[in-house]
Every structure is written in structure tokens, then in C-alpha cells.
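Internal QA ticket QA-208
Title: Verify multi-chain structure generation after dependency bump
Assignee: T.L.

Test input:
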Amino acid sequence: MPDTDVIQGTLDLLILKTLSLEPMHGFGIARRVEQVSRNVFKVNPGSLLVALQRLERAGHIDAAWRQSENSRRAKFYALTRSGRKQLELETADWSRRSAAVARLLKVEA
Amino acid sequence: MSLWRQLTRGLRVLTQRNESDAELSADLRDYIDRATTAHIANGLSPEAARRAALLEAGSATSIQDRVRSSAWENAVENLLADLRYGARQLLRHPGFATVAILTLALGIGATTAIFSAVNPILFEPLPYPHADRVVIVWESRSDGSPGNPAYGTFFGLTGSHPRSIELATVSKPWQPAMVGTGEAERFEGQRVTPDYFRTLGVSPALGRDFAPSDDVQNAPAVAVISDRLWKRRFASDPAIVGRQLTLDGSLVTVIGVMPAHFENVLAPASDIWAPLQYNPALPFDGREWGHHLFMLARLAPGASAKSAANELSTALVPLTQTYAKGYASSGGPPRGIAVHSMRDDLTANVRPALLAILGAVLLVLLIACINVTNLVLARGSERRAEFAMRAALGAGRARLIRQMLAEGLLLAFIGGTLGIAIAWFGIQAIVALSPVDLPRLSAIRIDGTVLVFALGITTLVGLLVGLLPALHAGANDPQAAIQESSRTVARGHHFTRRILVVAEVAISLVLLVAAGLLLRSIKKVFSVAPGFDQARLLTMQVQDSGRRTIPGPSSPANDRANSDALAGYYDAALKSVRAVPGVEAAAFSSQLPLSGDDDVYGVEFESLSNGASSDAAFRYAVSPGYFEAMHIPLRRGRYLDERDKPGAPVAVVISESLASRFFAHADPIGRRVRLGPDAGDPTKPWSVIVGVVGDVKQTGLAVTGDDAFYIANKQWQWFDPAQSLVVRSNGSDPASLTREVKEAVWSVDKDQPIVRVATMPSLVATSEAQRHFAFVLFEIFGLVAVLLAATGIYGVLSGAVTERTREIGIRAVFGASPSSILRLILGQGMALTAAGVAIGIAGAIAASSLLATLLFGITHLDPITYAAVTLLLLGVATAACYIPARRAMRLDPTTALRHD
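Actual output:
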């Protein structure tokens, strides 16, 4: 069975990226990450909620209870201005790192 | 922004735990619901979908736990829970709690009190701006010791404008008597040169500071007073500046009031300051060459005490030539100039004692911690099952360690709070006990620094007390502990507790050795013969408040007339005192032994080549009958008596030490000397030695250096305006004569202040106040240490007997005699004690060398002290062992065997 855990430290980036499209509830975020990654990543609700709490307290996202489809209430998370900035930073950082890893792997091969 | 969110969100969770929990679980429930819906959409039945969703998510409780514990407020909550739990534990065991808290309170309280006393003296800078630049300047005597500078030295040195000195000043004590309104009152004060306050970096709160024009001979008399005096005597009169006071018979104008916060470290009791007004012409036979001043200086920025000393020593050389005569009149020129940091100088005397006391109280605190740790460990064996249960229920090792640390901290903080109250009382006791020469007494109080210190040691104590039990609690293997029946001994605990008892015994031995050494020293010091008979002696100082001063400028005729008037007054007073019933003998002297007086002058012996002077010797200008009243033994020649009056050949009596040093085995009687201002001046007449008397201790019982000369007070060059009266009673209690003697003096003139009333035995005791202070504190610490150690031994043995009840029962069944069981338990306790004693002796040998300056007549290795202390500790330990041992001996074997 292939490893489907989110790479250490990238969950925040994935959440921020997902929320940059539109505000979403927890399950929506998990679902989106799984779909877009074509099930490479599976998001565990425990890790997700911890990460959401952390991001909310860091001021990168806001959380509010809202009415969703068919009148169910859900906690919606939305990117804040500081979250947008954080996303840019983390995206740039990630690109730099993954490019470096890719180069290394190429040399090795 | 994020910090703010962290704080507000965290606090919200802390205050509204239920709501935030509900919100979290609602969020989680929503997640599961949506996951279920998604599974149903994928074709699963509702039940299967729900199961799959729950399976994927995992346990809701553990998710909530993860989310919760990731936030900071969780740590706070845990701590609070730990503290609550700890508090419940304490309430359930009030005996244990009381003993532990009181022990810690005593330890923390004593440490805090001692710290508050030593902090301003040893660690804080003096209360002046740039206090590190304030220095005391000394003349170096021929033997290299620092001596008080003469005005001539100060005047000459400042006249050379040294670059390393920004400002300098000299001062001397001054006790003016104020008469006029109400009872005559004597003030403590100082005569100073104009830059005194500027050198310290303070200025008056009201009025003006001294100006150079104030410090000119015969300039209008002015004074600055303290805030204390202003409030007490003048009711904070806003118009005080410009008011005139009658001091010593002359009018003095108040020009300023110092601020309330001004702490005059050099002379803390001073309430009034006036210009010194010495003669800048420096007449070589004047007081300008007396070595009786204190010189303070403020170093220029960047200058060091060392560079200043070098510069001033160089500047001194030409002075000693220009003023050779002046220096010769007062014991010869200094060898150089020494410059010391003011703080170091003021604290040098008390520093070793205070550091020793601080060390001792830390040892007491350590013993207190060990004792409480021991108690907690003992409780720990009772709580093994509880810990095992908690561990089995999922409490991690870290959680258990945290629990024990929290309980330690709880004990420490309750103890610490109580300790601060104890410290408050302790400080009053320390101030009451403290030697008079303890500097900065007024700065001893509980302030912010002291509270921070108390908080710091309390936290440290809490961690110390919690640490060992925490490690033990954490080390438990839950399975083993639960399976273990309660009679099985927890070996780890026991080993640790024994080590702790050994440490307690060792530390208390160190403290007891120190206390014992001080006790022996004190006994030895007080067995030193002071050179006179202190029994039945009452002393007091009679001051002349200047009533008889003949007005007008100083002239030889006026000075003579003043002296005669004074002498007449004191003659009448003495006559009146001698007539008091119960007075066996009475006499006046210019200074009293062991009273803190320190009046020295040079002596020039004719027998020595080219009239060289001796070093300074103590000068006693005495009335006839002084030796007889003091019982100072005559060695050769005669005492001074009524024959030695003005106009008669000047007669001198010298001390035995001076006689043997300068005349060896020859007879000094009839040899000639010049004294004080006349020494070294060939134009002055000689005085004749008529007698030799036994040596008298002037500075302290433990101090050698007894050189002294005595001269009739009417034959000295001036009549000292303050005279010390010694009265020997023919009854037993001299203090009971105080009232009658004072009234006898006042019957001659009711306006003369009488001060410093004390019996001679109390003067002698006070002269050893510093040693006594250290001794009393060490005695207390030693006692506390030994008590704590004894309870420690008792606790461990008592626990051991309980745990070995079955074993003892088996032994008894198999025929062990009660006495062999007694020996078994006693032996166990004594082995611990012996180990502690051995380690303690090694520690005491190392530590007691720090006490060297406080010891007298014995070395820090004094075998008697070590032997006595060892015996004492062994005795106490035996008693502590005996009670549990006897319990073991009396155990009924059948009951013992059934003991679980």
C-alpha cells in the first residue's frame, strides 16, 4: 500500500492553497486535497483540525460558522490577507526545495 | 496580530472550556457527516457509509485530544489540574503537608532574611550616582596599613590638582549639643569640607549646598540638616532655611535640608553637617596634622583607584618635605596614599562574616529541601499503587513527572509565601542583633530585589523537592508495581532516602562545626584580660555644650581661660559624682577602652636618635584617680595624681608594651618624651615618664597593639570638651547608679548632655558584636540543621521498620533476641550517621577555612570542636534511631507475621 500521508510540513501549504480558491469547511478541504492530488494524499481529520487551529491562531485563516447547502451549518475557513502572503512565501519555498530535490535526483540518475 | 489571537483564543478556551469543546466536536461531527454523505453518494448503505467514515477518521476523543493538546493553554490547564490534584493530596494528608510546608517556610524565610541583609552590603552599589567612582583615600602607615589622613595631606593633595580626582572632601565626626528650647540635645553630625555632598553626587532638597566661602576660618557658622532631623525636631518647618540654632553655645544658621532619600553611608546616624573650617596655613602644631579625618573622592571618568593611588602617592612626596614638621608632630609622614572603592572599604570588615552566614543559611535551606524531599519520597512509596494505576490508565511518564514537579512547586510556593512573612520577622531580629558597625543597616528591608530572590529560590526549591520523587514516579513499571504486594520494599526509594539522610547528617555536621568553632572563639576572646577590671564599672560621656566658651576670637589667653573654665566644671562634676552613695571611685578620661574611641598621637622618645617619633600610640588625658578607678595595675613608678597640674613638670605614664619596645630591660622612669603636636619639634619642652602601667585593650579584645600613653587632662595642650566618666560601684549592679550619677553631674550644670551610658561589661560585649552576631546566627542554623537531620534519620528508620515488620517477625520466631533486633535497627541508622559524619568532617575541614577571620585562639581544625560536634551528632542520631528500634524490638512476632 502506497504511503498516502501528507509530506511532513506541507499540510499547511496544501490547506492555504485550497482555501485560496474559496472559503471551505474542513471536509471540503480534505476532499479537495485528495481529489486534486488524485488520492496521492489522504488527509486525516485529526491532523487537519490541528492544522486549521494553528493557522487560525497564526492569523492566516479566519473561521466562522455559516449556513451551507441544504441548510446545514458548518465551520467555514477563509484565507486572510496574511494567509495569502504566507501562501506566496510557502509556495516559493516549496518550489525552491522541490526543484533542488529534482536536480539532485537527476544528477544521481 | 497572531500573538494576540493566540492569547485571546487560548484564554477563551481556558475560561469557556465547554463551549470550545462543543464547537470542536460540532466541527468534527460535521466532517464525519459529510464524509458519510460522500460514501452514500458512492453507493454504500447509510450504515456502512457511517462505519467507513468513522473508521477513516479514527477515535473522536483522540482527535479532540490532539487538537486540544496542540495549543498552549493545554499546558496551563494541565498545570492547574496538577496543582488541584496536588492540593487535594495535601489536604488529605494534613500532617505531612504541615511539616513539609513549615520546613520549607523556615528554610526560605531564613534565606530570604539573610539575603535581604547582605544584599545592600555585598551586592548592591552604594546609593549614589556612579557609585563605582566614589573612593576612600587613606594614608599608608609605615607598616602599610591604611590610616586616617590629616587635613594637611588632604589640602596638599587637592592643591596638586590630581587629574584622576574629580572632587574630594574630608570629614570628621561632630556631636554638637543644642541648647535653648527644651532639654539639651546632642546631635550626631559631621564637619565636612564644602564638596562633601557634591563628591557623593547629592544636593540639598531645600536651600543650598556648602560653598567654598563657608569653609573659611571664622566665616559665619552655617549648617545643613537631614530630612530626618528637619521632620523630627523642626516639624518640617518650610522656613527652616535661614533659621538660627544654638549649637555648643554659638549661633549657627541652617542653609539647607538634605533629601529624604539621602543615605549617608559613611556616618548613617548623621543629622547635621557644618563646614570643617580648618586653617589652610597648616600650622605644624595644629589639629591640621592630626590623623583623624575621612577622605572621600570621586574619581574622574576613566580613572581607576589604582591610577589615583599612584598619582596621589607621587604628589605626596614633595608634601612630606615641605611639611616635615607637621607630619613629625603626628607620628611621621605616611609612606604613600591608598585608594579603595568606598563600598569595598566599608564592607571589608563584615564581608567574610556575611559571606559565611550566607553560605550557612543556604546549607540550612538545602537541608530543609532534603528533608522535604525525603518526606515526599516516603509518601511516594505509599502512592506507588496510585501512580501505577494512573500509568495503566494511560498517563505517560512525562505526565507523572509533571505531576510530582507540580506538587513540589505547590509545596514550595505555600512555604515561600509563609517564608516571606518569616523573613519579615527575621529581618527585625537581624537588625536588632546586628553589630553597630554593620554598614547600610537602613537599607535592610524586603524590597523588589528581595522578593525576586525569594521567588527565584522558591521555584528552585520546588523543582528540587519535586525532582527526585518525579524521577522515581516516572521510573515505575506500572505492571510490576500493581503486581507487587504492598509489603515489598521499593528498593529505589530506599536507596535514595538513605543517601539523603547521609547528606543531611554531613551538612549539619558542617554547620555545627562552624557554630562550635565560633563558640570556642568567643569564649577565648572573652577570656582575654582587657587590662582593667570591668566588673562594677559604669561609663558615660559628659559633653560640654559650650556654655563656658568665652566669646571672641581664638587667642592663647582666651583658649587658656576656656580650658580653665572647662577643667573647673569637670572638677566640680567629679566631686559631686564621688559623693554619690554607692560610688567607690570615679574618674574622667578623654577616651574609653573598647568603646570605639580611637584617639592616637605620636610619641617622640629622647633616647631615640635625632628625636624620631614612634608610631602613633593611644592618648588618654585622664583625671587623677583614673587608674585606681579602672584597676589598671602599676608596673613601675607612680600613677598620675593631684601633683600633675598646670605649671608643674608634665608627667607621662606609658603602657607596658611601649616601655618594653623602646626601653627593653632599661628603666623608663625619668626618661623624656615629646607628645602629640610637640613630637619632633625641638623648640618644645620635654615631658617626663613617671610610671608604667599594664596594657589595656583599646580597639578590641582580639586586637593587639596596646601602645598607649596617659597624661593628666589638665597638663594636655587643651582640655577635651567631651569627657568619659568611669564610675566603680561598691555594690554589685553599676547600672542602678545611673540615675544618681547623672543627677550628680546635672547638679553642677543641668545643660550638659550625657550620652553613651553603658556598663563596662556591656561595652566589652558590644566590642565583639560582629563575632557574636555570626555566632548567634550559626548557633541557630546549627540547631535547625541538627533537628532536621534527626527527623530525617527518624523518618527513614521508622519507614524501614514498618516495611521490615514481617522480616523482623520471622527473625523473632527463629529466636532472634529483642536486643539483637534492637542492634540490627540501631546499626542500620548508625551506619548512615557514620557515613554522614565522615563526609561532614571532610566538608567541615574545607568549609571552615572561610571562617578564619572570625576565629580567635583556635585554628579552623580545632580537634576539640570536631570531636564534640561528632559526639553531639552521634548522640542525637542514636536518639532518633532508638525510637523506631525499640518499636521493632517490642513487635509481637504473631502480629508481625500477619502484617501485610
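Spot checks passed. The CA atoms of residues 12 and 20 of chain B lie 8 Å apart.
Status: verified.
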